[in-house]
C-alpha cells in the first residue's frame, strides 16, 4: 500500500457549544439578536416594516444597522413600501397574526383584559370593515402576509433576507399551520426558506373559561428566515 504524499491537513475551527440554536425559551428580542448576527451583516440596510414599539430591537446596539423603522401607525403600509426596487438588504415583518384581531366588532376582538398589551402591539384597536369577497378571519391574516411578502420581494436586493414572525392558530375549530402556509406560498414568489426559529413563551397562556379542551394551547411562535433568490440570467 502506497503512502499518501504530504501530511494530513488539520481541520479548521474549534469545538464549541456557543452556537445559535433553532429553539429557545426566551423573549423575542434575544432570539432576534441571534438571527441578525447569523444572517444579516452589520451595516446592512434593514427595513422593519411593522416596527411598532421596537420590541425586537431592544437587544441591538444603536448604529449596528442602517434601520428604517416604519409601521401602519406612522402612515406606512407594509404592503406598499416607499422604497425603490431592489434597494433593501433585509426586511423584518411582524404583522397581526391572530385572526381574532380581524373582527368586525371591537368588543369581539382578541387582546382584551390582560392581553391588552398584545392588541396594542399588533393592532390599531379598530374593527375590520369587510368588503364583499374579501378574505375573513384566518384567511385575512394570510392575505396580509402574502401581500406584504410580494412587496418585500420587490424592494429586497438579490439574496436579500426576509425575516418573518408568525404563529400557528386554531380558527373555526380548524388547525391552521401558518408557518407551513407561509413557507409554501413564499416559495412560489421566489423565496428560499433558509432557517426557522421556535420561540417558546416564558409564561403559560391562560383562558378565562373552558368547558373542554380540543386542541393544544399554542405557547410557541416562529421566526422564519427567507432569502430572495436571484433570477437566473437567460443565455
UniProtKB/TrEMBL annotation:
Name assigned to this protein: Site-specific DNA-methyltransferase
Superkingdom field: Bacteria
Keywords, alphabetical: Methyltransferase, Restriction system, Transferase
Gene3D superfamilies in the record: Vaccinia Virus protein VP39
One function term, GO molecular function aspect: DNA binding
Keyword Transferase recorded: yes
Keyword Methyltransferase: yes
Amino acid at each position: 500500500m502506497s503512502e499518501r504524499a504530504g501530511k494530513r491537513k488539520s481541520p479548521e475551527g474549534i469545538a464549541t457549544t456557543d452556537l445559535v440554536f433553532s429553539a429557545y425559551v426566551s423573549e423575542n428580542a434575544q432570539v432576534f439578536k441571534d438571527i441578525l448576527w447569523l444572517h444579516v451583516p452589520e451595516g446592512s440596510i434593514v427595513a422593519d416594516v411593522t416596527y411598532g414599539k421596537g420590541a425586537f430591537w431592544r437587544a441591538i446596539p444603536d448604529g449596528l444597522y442602517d434601520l428604517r423603522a416604519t409601521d401602519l401607525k406612522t402612515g406606512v403600509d407594509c404592503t406598499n413600501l416607499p422604497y425603490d426596487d431592489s434597494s433593501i438588504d433585509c426586511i423584518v415583518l411582524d404583522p397581526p397574526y391572530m385572526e381574532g384581531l380581524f373582527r368586525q366588532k371591537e368588543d369581539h376582538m382578541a387582546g382584551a383584559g390582560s392581553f391588552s398589551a398584545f392588541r396594542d402591539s399588533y393592532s390599531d384597536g379598530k374593527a375590520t370593515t369587510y368588503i364583499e369577497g374579501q378574505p375573513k378571519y384566518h384567511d385575512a391574516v394570510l392575505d396580509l402576509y402574502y401581500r406584504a411578502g410580494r412587496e418585500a420581494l420587490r424592494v429586497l436586493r438579490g439574496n436579500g433576507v426576509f425575516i418573518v414572525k408568525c404563529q400557528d392558530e386554531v380558527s373555526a375549530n380548524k388547525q391552521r399551520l401558518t408557518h407551513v402556509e407561509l413557507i409554501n406560498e413564499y416559495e412560489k414568489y421566489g423565496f428560499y426558506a433558509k432557517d426557522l426559529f421556535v420561540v417558546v413563551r416564558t409564561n403559560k397562556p391562560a383562558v378565562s373559561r373552558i368547558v373542554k379542551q380540543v386542541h393544544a394551547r399554542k405557547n410557541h411562535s416562529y421566526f422564519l428566515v427567507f432569502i430572495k433568490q436571484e433570477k437566473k440570467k437567460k443565455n
